[in-house]
Each structure stands twice: as structure tokens, then as C-alpha cells.
Write a structure and sequence with these properties.
single chain; alpha/beta; 4-stranded antiparallel beta sheet; globular; disordered N terminus
Length: about 525
């Protein structure tokens, strides 16, 4: 769309004035200043594709609560997670740096904490400005120091509390991995010391049935990776012994996490707060509560979208009830693109109908094509943004530096080194965003407004299609697409424009070599 410079400058002036106002107040005004600092809520949905919400063209499912955020805010149509898989994108969101710098991949359920306790993080940044901070939902960034195996019967740390969160209520890893228990702050919830909890990713332990030994006990067929200990009728990745009283019930996630989030909001409504609501939905195993079943035409995956939308609405309603909605920046987005079959057979493919999870884009989760990282992204901040639909190039990795600018917090040279301040574009649908961004999958890609370059990758590149039914976008040859004219990335122009290929590869190489802001 054509950028409106007057709106752009007005938004920049407004953001600057707010930043100056916050920094200029005297000590006597501190209490009032605390009330004017905007709360921040990030809804981080799991595996939600660009086309999976109504405002982006979803069919067979309705998302009225998400739509309401878009109607009162900005719907970004070219916004990206930093990576096409969950652990790397979560790491980048919370640290402002690309996960490839630490060679971060999707973690096992008993992996050590990826973020060092001394490392700068988004919650630490906000705490500098007096914020209370919480994370609720899926974690999957590791726990413990890695020097010795985790003892699930004692305090589990380091974890979220050691990297800047004041409160945490988590799935320790993911819904498809053991341990299938909740972790509140440092301790497993409802654990009976007489029935200690043990976890193994190497061999079977305990006497629970497994999917590979007792396939008839599974509610959903699973692949070999997701076929170990059965909890709640679902075989998981890894083995778990003991801890029976602490087991979760997947169908309860919607209520448990919503209540924890809303309690945090209620308890902190008189001070600035940051809530990182990290959904399990719509990740596998998809087990929406009974109240949502049949609410879409797409079976369990569609019903999980309905559940996710309901949760979003409940948290927004709590913000309104607490009188803080108008002073809360809500960012709704996803950790990566969509996947239909990811370990379990829940008929997501068979019941898809005319729905396009990635919208018009090629690929999905794991993929180097646009569907891997171009995800739903909405910013809602009543009376403080120029609403509308924005086609600006945006990245989740920039939330860090943009909030630092808003709150007038200087960043150290080694802090959030890949994060750029684009506060103007976050607050104004007509403003310009990034000029370029890196997309991480199983290779690296570079996006600009005009072009998309995908770095070549040696070896066999068919496993994503074979195992996940997704076009991986990987090739032993470099790929270059004119993204404006060819958004589905069908016509490789690399041989026609070797100069652009060389230039974009140099930009990637320079980014990799970067060590400071």
C-alpha cells in the first residue's frame, strides 16, 4: 500500500512524546507514571498459520475475538516469526537475537535452559521499568543448568524466574512430550512425594503403557517419535514414571491457563505488567475441550482454533474488567507457520475442506517458503495506534528494541543485537517497517520488499515433505523469487539475477558475523 508520510510522522512524534513523557517525570510523579506505562500482553499461538484466522480468510472456522483485535488495531500481512520452528522463534522473541547464533534447534523435553541467567531478555528489560512479568503456557526453552539431570521432585531451576519472569505456570516442554505435568515457578504442581516423578528420553521406565507396546490404548494413532508413554490416552515423546497425581488432562488446558493468566492480570492491575501467554493450541496433540468440539467444520484442528480464540477473548475480557484494556499493548501472533500432520493422525488433512492454513503462501512449519514464518500478527492498543491493514515487512525479533524505545530504556551493545526499533510501524498501519529480514528454517533466507532469497542446502531435502506433508523449500541450488509478483514462490530467478543472489548472500554472511548492535 502507499505509505502516508504525514501519518508516519505523526505516529513517530506520538511515540517519541510518550517516551519523553515517561522519562521526564520527577520522582514525586512516579506513582502516576507507573499507571501510565502501557501493559504488554503477547499472545503467542503455536503452529497457527497466516490463513487460520477469519480476518485473513479462514474457511470452516470463525475467530470473532481475534477479529475484534484486528478491527480495533493493526493487522500486519507481511509479519514474520524469526524461525519456522518453535524453540528458535521463542528464543529470538525473548532475547532479540537470532537462534542460529547458538545453533538452537527444537529441544527435547529434558533439555537444559537455552537462555543463560545472565543474558539480557525482554522480561528483564521491562522489569527495569517497574513491570511485573509472567509467562503462562508452553515453555520449550529448556530447564536446569545441564550439568546434571533434572530432578523433577525438587526445585527446577534455572528456568523462567532466573531469566526475568516473576511468575510462571507452564507445560515444561510441549504437549506431546513428557513430563505431562504442570510446573508452577520452580515446582511440579500436585506432586505426591510418595510417588516421585522420573523422566527418560533414552529408555522405558515405570509401568505406564506405551504406544509401541499397547497401540490399542491410544486415542490417536501416532508415528514412531510420538509413541512412548501413554498419558490421558495419548502416546507422547519420551518415557515417564511416577507422578500420577500431577498428570495433566489435555482437555483442561484451556481453563487452567486462562485462569492463571487472568489471576495475574487481576493481581497486577494497579501496576504495569507483562504477560507472555504462550499457547499450547493449536499444537499436537489437539484435544480441545468438549465445549468446543464441532464448532468448526475441520475436526479437531479447527475446534482447537475455536478454543484458542475463546481463550484470547477471555483474557481480553479480563483486561477490560480490570480497567486496563485501553492502556495495554496486545500483540497477537504465532511461533511459526501451520502443520496439519505432526506426529498424530487426527484427520486434519481429510477434514481441511477449502481452508488454506497458510493462506496464499507456499509451505508451512519447518519450511523455507513464506508459509514457514509469515504468520498472523495483530497489534491492538486503543487510541494510541493508527489502525488498519499494514503490508510493512515486520519481525517479532523487533518487539524487544521497539519496547525499549517506547520506555526510553537504552540497550547495551551486546543486548538484543538483531532487534531493530520499528515502534513507528508497530503503531501506524501506514508506516514503513523493515527493509530486510532473515527467515530461519533448515537454511537461511533473506526477505526484502521486492525479493526473497533462499540459501542452498546440501544433502537430501525431502524429509519435510515425506514426514510432515509440507513443501520444505530446500534446494541444493540457490533460489530467488520476486515476492511482489510471485508471492507463491513458483518461479526461481536465481540464474537470471546472480548479482542479487551474491548481494543477498553477503548480507546474510554479514549478519552472521555481527557481534554487537
Amino acid at each position: 500500500m502507499k505509505k502516508n508520510k504525514f501519518r508516519q510522522y505523526n505516529s513517530l512524534i506520538s511515540a517519541t512524546l510518550l517516551s519523553l513523557t515517561l522519562s521526564a517525570c520527577s520522582t514525586a510523579e512516579n506513582e502516576e507514571v507507573e499507571k501510565t506505562k502501557p501493559n504488554v500482553v503477547i499472545f503467542y499461538v503455536d503452529d497457527l498459520g497466516f490463513g487460520d484466522i477469519s480476518v485473513n480468510g479462514a474457511k470452516g472456522v470463525k475467530t470473532p475475538n481475534i477479529d475484534a483485535l484486528a478491527q480495533g488495531g493493526i493487522n500486519f500481512t507481511d509479519a514474520h516469526s524469526s524461525a519456522a520452528t518453535c524453540t528458535p522463534s521463542r528464543y529470538s522473541l525473548l532475547t532479540g537475537e537470532h537462534a542460529f547464533r547458538k545453533k538452537i534447534k527444537v529441544l527435547k523435553g529434558d533439555a537444559a535452559l537455552l537462555i543463560e541467567p545472565e543474558q539480557p531478555t525482554l522480561p528483564k528489560l521491562l522489569k527495569k521499568s517497574g513491570y511485573e512479568t509472567a509467562v503462562v503456557g508452553k515453555w520449550h526453552l529448556g530447564l536446569g543448568d545441564g550439568k546434571q539431570p533434572l530432578d523433577w521432585n525438587e526445585a527446577i531451576k534455572p528456568g523462567p524466574l532466573e531469566i526475568g519472569f516473576d511468575y510462571s505456570y507452564l507445560l515444561p516442554a510441549t504437549g506431546d512430550r513428557v513430563p505431562a505435568v504442570y510446573l508452577e515457578n520452580h515446582h511440579v504442581v500436585n506432586l505426591d512425594k510418595k510417588d516421585p516423578l522420573f523422566v527418560s528420553y533414552q529408555k522405558k521406565i515405570g509401568n505406564r503403557p506405551t504406544g509401541y507396546e499397547n497401540p490399542d490404548l491410544r486415542r490417536q494413532p501416532a508415528d514412531t517419535q510420538h509413541n512412548d508413554t501413554i498419558i490421558n490416552g495419548i502416546s507422547r515423546i519420551g518415557h515417564m514414571a511416577g507422578g500420577k497425581s500431577a498428570e495433566w488432562v489435555d482437555e483442561d488446558f484451556y481453563k487452567v491457563f486462562t485462569d492463571k493468566a487472568n489471576n495475574f492480570i487481576s493481581q497486577n492491575q494497579d501496576k504495569p505488567f507483562f504477560l507472555f501467554f504462550s499457547f499450547h493450541d493449536i499444537h499436537v496433540p489437539r484435544l480441545p475441550n468438549e465445549r468446543f468440539k464441532g464448532q468448526s467444520s475441520m475436526g479437531l484442528r479447527g475446534d482447537a482454533i475455536v478454543q484458542m480464540d475463546w481463550i484470547t477473548g477471555q483474557v481480553v475480557a479480563q483486561l477490560e474488567k480490570s480497567g486496563v484494556l485501553n492502556n495495554t499493548i496486545i500483540i497477537f501472533t504465532s511461533d511459526n507457520g501451520p502443520v496439519l500432520t505432526d506426529g498424530y493422525d487426527d484427520f486434519a488433512i481429510e477434514k481441511l475442506g477449502e481452508h488454506l492454513p497458510a493462506g496464499p503462501y507456499r509451505g508451512g512449519k519447518y519450511s523455507a517458503f513464506e508459509g514457514g514464518t509469515r504468520v498472523p500478527t495483530i497489534l491492538h492498543y486503543p487510541n494510541n495506534v493508527t489502525p488498519g491493514v499494514s503490508d510493512s515487512l515486520m519481525s517479532q525479533i523487533d518487539i524487544y528494541a521497539s519496547l525499549a524505545k517506547l520506555l526510553n530504556i537504552p540497550l547495551a551493545k551486546n543486548e538484543a543485537i538483531d532487534s531493530e526499533n520499528h515502534l513507528n510501524a508497530w503503531f501506524n498501519a501506514e508506516a514503513q517497517g523493515r527493509t530486510a529480514l532473515i527467515e530461519e528454517s533448515y537454511t537461511l533466507s533473506l526477505r526484502t520488499e521486492q525479493w526473497k532469497y533462499i540459501k542452498s542446502k546440501k544433502g537430501s531435502n525431502s524429509w519435510i515433505a515425506d514426514r510432515k506433508n509440507i513443501e520444505g523449500g530446500l534446494s541444493t541450488e540457490p533460489q530467488l523469487f520476486s515476492i511482489k509478483e510471485d508471492p507463491q514462490e513458483m518461479n526461481n530467478l536465481a540464474k537470471k539475477h546472480p548479482d542479487i543472489v551474491e548481494k543477498y548472500q553477503q548480507i546474510i554472511d554479514k549478519t552472521i558475523a555481527k557481534t554487537t548492535r
